[in-house]
Specification:
Layout (H helix, E strand, L loop, with lengths): L1 E5 L3 H13 L3 E5 L2 H10 L4 E4 L2 E2 L2 E2 H10 L5 E6 L4 H9 L4 E4 L4 H16 L6 E3 L2 E4 L4 E4 L2 E2 L4 H11 L6 E2 H9 L10 H17 L4 E5 L3 E5 L3
Parallel strand pairs: 1-2, 1-3, 3-6, 6-7
Antiparallel strand pairs: 4-5, 8-9, 9-10, 10-11, 12-14, 13-14
Helix pairs in contact: 6-7, 6-8
C-alpha cells in the first residue's frame, strides 16, 4: 500500500512518515501545493493524507481536482483547522475522513486502515480471492486456510494484485506502488521478475487458484478461476 503525505510541517511530516513505514506502507511526501500536484500528476496512491493549509494553495483545491478527475485514491484530511465549515467542505468535496491536529499516530493508522477497508474491501477485515486469504492487519497469507510464508516484498506484490484481480498491471506501475515513486529512475525491472518468480512458485506449491501471468513486454495479471 502506498501513501502520499501532503503536509508542510517538516517535523510532523517526518513523524508520520516513520510511523507509517513501521506499518509497512510505502510512503511519499510533498510539502507544498505545487509539489503535491506534481506527485499526483505522475503517480497513483492508495491513500492521501491531506493538509488544508499549504504553501502556494489549498488542500481543498487539490481534493476538488482529484474528484473532478475521478481519481480513486482514499483521502483523509489532516488539519489544525477544526472548524465545522472546513470539515463539511472537505467531506462535501469527497474526502473519506477528517482528522484534526493534534492526533495520536495510532488513531491515524486506524483511520487509514478503516478507510481502505471500507472503500476497497466492502468493510471486510480479510481480503479473499478464490482460495487465497490475506489479512492486512497481521500481514498473514493463507491458501485453503493453510499459512503461506512470504517475504515482505512478495506479500506487498500479492496484496497489490489481489486488490486488482484480472487487471493488466504495468511493470513500472507495480514497481512504483511496491518500492516507491523514485523507482522510475532504475534502468530495468529485473528485480520485479525475481520477486514474482518466487511468489508464483510459493502460491503454486500451496495450491492457490489464482495465478500471476506475465504479459510479454507489458507486465503481469492475476488471473482468477472465476
Amino acid at each position: 500500500m502506498k501513501i502520499l503525505i501532503i503536509e508542510d510541517d517538516p517535523s510532523l511530516q517526518e513523524i508520520i512518515k516513520k510511523s507509517l513505514e513501521k506499518e509497512r506502507y510505502v510512503v511519499e511526501t510533498a510539502d507544498n501545493y505545487q509539489a503535491a500536484l506534481l506527485k499526483l500528476d505522475d503517480y497513483d496512491y492508495d491513500c492521501i493524507l491531506l493538509d488544508i493549509m499549504l504553501p502556494g494553495g489549498s488542500g481543498l483545491q487539490i481534493l476538488e481536482s482529484l474528484k473532478k478527475e475521478r481519481r480513486k485514491e482514499n483521502v483523509i484530511i489532516i488539519s489544525a483547522k477544526d472548524s465545522w465549515e472546513d470539515k463539511v467542505a472537505g467531506l462535501d468535496l469527497g474526502a473519506d475522513d477528517y482528522l484534526a491536529k493534534p492526533f495520536h499516530l495510532a488513531e491515524l493508522n486506524a483511520r487509514i486502515k478503516s478507510v481502505i477497508r471500507r472503500n476497497n474491501h466492502g468493510g471486510e477485515q480479510l481480503i479473499t480471492l478464490d482460495n487465497i486469504e490475506v489479512n492486512p492487519s497481521t500481514f498473514e497469507v493463507k491458501v485453503d486456510q493453510q499459512p503461506v510464508d512470504l517475504s515482505r516484498k512478495e506479500y506487498d506484490i500479492l496484496l497489490y494484485f489481489i486488490n486488482r484481480p484480472n487487471r493488466l498491471i504495468n511493470k513500472q506501475t507495480l514497481a512504483e506502488s511496491v518500492w516507491g515513486d523514485h523507482i522510475d529512475q532504475v534502468d530495468n525491472f529485473d528485480f520485479i521478475y525475481a520477486q514474482i518468480k518466487n511468489l508464483r512458485k510459493k502460491l503454486k506449491e500451496a495450491g492457490a487458484g489464482p495465478e500471476i501471468k506475465a504479459v510479454y513486454g507489458i507486465g503481469y495479471k492475476l488471473i482468477t478461476n472465476n
